[in-house]
Amino acid sequence: MSSHALSSVRFRSKTITAALAFFFGSLGAHRFYLHGPRDVFGWAHIVGTLIGIPGVLLLIATERASIAGWVLVMPGAISLLAAFLAAIVYGLRPDEKWDAQFNADTGRTSRSGWTVIFVVIFSLLIGAFLLMTGLALSFQTYFESQVEAAKALSQ
C-alpha cells in the first residue's frame, strides 16, 4: 500500500485539529495533520510566520515607524489570524460533516466534547483580541504620522 493510501485511511480528530490550529496554527500544524507534509497551505503558514517575525522585530526597534516592518508583518499576521479562524471553523463543524470529509474511509466516527468548545471559545477570544490590537496600533500609527506631517508642513 502506498504512503498516500495509508494516510487517507488514518482517523483525524476534530478536537486535535482545532487544538493544533489554536496552539501551532501559524506553523501550519493543523494543515499538516489533515493533509500531510505536502500541503502547500501548511508551508505557506510557515513562510508567512518566518517573514512576519523580522517585521515584528523591525517595528519594535523603530517604534512602528518602519514601512518595511509593516510590509513584513502582514504575512505573519494573516497566518496567525487564519490559524485562529481555522480553529473556530473546524471546531464548529458538525461531527457528521467532519467524518464525511476526513474519516469516511476509517469506519470510525467523531465524538467531540467540551474540549473542542473551549478551543473555539479561546480561539475567538484571543483571535479577536489580536485583530483589534493590530487594527488599533495600525490606526494609531497612521494618525500619529499624519499629525507629524501636518506639524512639519506648518513650520
Q: Could you describe the 3D structure shown?
A:
The chain is mostly helical. It has one domain (3-154). Helix content is 78%, strand content 0%. It has helices spanning 3-8, 14-24, 29-35, 40-61, 67-92, 95-102, 114-154. Helix 4 packs across helix 5. The longest helix has 41 residues, at 114-154. The termini are far apart. The model has no long low-confidence stretch (mean pLDDT 93).
What's the layout of helices and strands?
Blueprint: H1 3-8, H2 14-24, H3 29-35, H4 40-61, H5 67-92, H6 95-102, H7 114-154
Beta-strand level of the residues, as a percent range?
Answer: under 5%
Computed CA radius of gyration, to the nearest angstrom: 20 Å
N→C terminal distance: 76 Å
Helix/strand order: HHHHHHH
**How many strand segments?**
0
Structural class: mainly alpha
Taken together, the total number of domains comes to 1
What is the number of helical segments per DSSP (H or I, 4+ residues)? 7
Task: Give the overall shape.
Answer: elongated
* Major sheet details: none
The average pLDDT score comes to 93
Low-confidence stretches: none
How much helical structure, as a percent, in the residues? over 70%
